[in-house]
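ARCHIVE CARD
Drawer: 12
Card no.: 0347
Subject: one protein chain, sequence and derived structure
Cross-reference: see card 0346
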Amino acid sequence: MGKSGAGKTSMRSLIFSNYTANDTRRLGATIDVEHSTVQFMGDLNLNIWDCGGQHKYLDNYLNEQKENIFGNVEVLIYVFDLETTNRESEYKLYDECLHNLEAYSRDAKVYCLVHKIDKVAEDQKEATVESYRRALAKRSELFQPGVYGTSIWDHTLYRAWSQIVYTLVPNMAVIKQHLMNFCRLTDAAEVVLFERATFLVVCCTAAGGGDEDAITSKYMGVSQVIKMYRNMCLQCQSPFRDIQVRNKHYTLFIEPFTKSTYILVITVDPEIEPAVTKANIDAAKNHFIKLAD
């Protein structure tokens, strides 16, 4: 949800339809509501409603169609346009959305994406997002939104959407615990699970714990790069399968894992042969298939 031109369809196309940032320039305005269903992590179906932001549609969503639009919602993603000239009108629309959400889907989660953050100077980005975060926290007692600065031109969009889908996978805590066990048993330095279609980070872990936010941020960039590389492979009619990198500092594997995930494994011990790590990945597949799929 959000006003026209905020970038809602562009981000959906980038994450779920393998568009590049440049490809989104040919997208037109969304007419009314565009429905799409995406299979994510095995049997989890994401029913995504992309709501056009023109005034005539917004008025319809908030009045005549409010029960249809706001009923049975698991997640509301509101996109704020940093290029707007009237932030108060954005807040007013957001308030109306929350009012209807409270009436029809009180248990829904709310995320606010402060979009086009690339338009803001680097040293002002965090302060800009924080100003939205403070303002939005005061606007509802029932819903406390997660607020992220995003752009289609860097990894910030992947970070936000990874955090969103993380909350939707029902057995995520179990998957993460088993990923930690895999990391420990294989003497890996870092292990990351990516969703196969979108290459969003599902979860990650590192030997000795480590700073999880820093690890996650690092692999958001990897997620974006791998997805771009995979699209280039498809254009060359050479489907992407896996990546192996070995140098004096580390050995890295990105391999198909379950039917809905890829796994990234990094080892730094030079005595661990790549064949051993690959055998460990293959041996763990059936176990994780039962968990992730």
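Annotation on reverse: The radius of gyration is 20 Å. The CA atoms of residues 55 and 182 lie 51 Å apart.
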